[in-house]
What does this fold into?
Amino acid sequence: MENTHFKVSQYVCAVLLIVSSIALVAYQVIEIDDVAAGLLYYVAQSFLLAGSIFGLDQYIRIINKHYHEHTNK
It folds into this structure.
């Protein structure tokens, strides 16, 4: 049960990072008609963190699947 809450919090964090970075870029483009370099850095870091959260979870699932297949033979 505790692991499920941890995964949900990871996914929520990743989605919020993506949404916040897109919203900030959209706001700057609409209001200022320019995107600051610091914001681009934030967007890049947000996408890297979100991608690593989803990618690491998928990698662990694949490793667990292969481990259980080999131990059940």
About this structure: The chain has a mean pLDDT of 85. Residues 26 and 32 are 10 Å apart (CA to CA). The radius of gyration is 18 Å.
